[in-house]
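Reminder to self: tokens first, then the designed residues, so the page reads top to bottom the way the pipeline ran.
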């Protein structure tokens, strides 16, 4: 049997890499052999993830990047190439806290900020890395959307719209870069247990009891389950998959209802 790992020889740039899902993806990619450039608006969080990767004998650097700032996105790509020689893989997982409320209540500046970070940030990170991925001979982009890009939520037009937009943007990215051997896909996570959700619901059991019935599988997902899907899409295992969305949602979007238990 070969000891080759899924992402040996890859260099991955991960935006929002200091966060829960981005951090989980960065760690999984490093465990699969990739060198990882962990980008986050919080340098402290980015460096913490990079340090944890190094502690597990992986390769990573942490870089401060506000994905709303073109110059910082460009600098991240340049640093990645300076440090690791190339870029083969881009993951966009950064997301801002988006404003809630119907359109009358939504503040225009907060709306614009949500679009800038959640959506234009994906465009900018692609804008400054695609040329490097092409120069490396090809690779893969994985953009993190959401099940909320498939269905709406009351008062969350900013978040839901940006997540739907990421999916369509990624389809066109796949069309534009397929000829350059670059695949582009999205992942739509359903409810994932993170430290934030655990703070809200107390325990994983409680989170599952309240949120689990909305999924066919009757539970919430884990960061590791999203990271597995990202590693798959970034790897040659997904060599013929581009322009698609992979729903890592326990069947949330397959099932239109609040609780499967009440309909059985
Ligand atoms: N947690 C879930 O249940 C869930 C479900 C569906 C989709 N998602 C998506 O997964 C992604 C990660 O979510 P998470 O739960 O890990 O959240 P998180 O808050 O832990 O991670 C987001 C990260 O983005 C960073 N960030 C914020 N603004 C930034 C900016 N301007 N530039 C660069 N980085 C910035 C934050 O510092 C944070 O580290 C997001 O795109 C989110 O929309 C999450």
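Designed residues (264 positions):
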């Amino acid at each position: 049997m070969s000891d080759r790992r899924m992402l040996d020889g890859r260099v991955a740039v991960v935006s929002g890499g200091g966060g829960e899902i981005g951090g989980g993806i960065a760690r999984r990619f490093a465990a699969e052999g990739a060198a990882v450039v962990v980008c986050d608006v919080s340098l402290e969080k980015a460096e913490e993830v990079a340090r944890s990767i190094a502690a597990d004998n992986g390769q990573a650097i942490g870089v401060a990047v506000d994905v709303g700032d073109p110059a910082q996105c460009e600098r991240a790509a340049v640093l990645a190439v300076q440090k690791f020689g190339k870029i083969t893989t881009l993951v966009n997982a950064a997301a801002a806290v988006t404003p809630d409320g119907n359109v009358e209540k939504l503040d225009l500046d907060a709306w614009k900020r949500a679009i800038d970070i959640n959506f234009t940030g994906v465009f900018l990170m692609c804008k400054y890395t695609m040329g490097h991925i092409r120069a490396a001979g090809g690779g893969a982009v994985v953009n993190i959307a959401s099940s909320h890009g498939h269905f709406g939520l009351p008062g969350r037009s900013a978040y839901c719209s940006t997540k739907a937009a990421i999916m369509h943007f990624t389809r066109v990215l796949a069309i534009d870069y397929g000829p350059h051997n670059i695949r582009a896909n999205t992942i739509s996570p359903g409810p994932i247990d993170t430290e934030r959700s655990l703070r809200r619901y107390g325990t994983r059991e409680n989170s599952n009891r309240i949120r689990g019935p909305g999924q066919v599988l009757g539970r919430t997902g884990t960061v590791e389950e999203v990271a597995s899907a990202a590693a798959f899409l970034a790897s040659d295992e997904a060599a013929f998959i581009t322009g698609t969305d992979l729903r890592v949602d326990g069947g949330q979007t397959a099932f239109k209802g609040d609780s499967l238990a009440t309909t059985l």
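The chain has one domain: 11-248.
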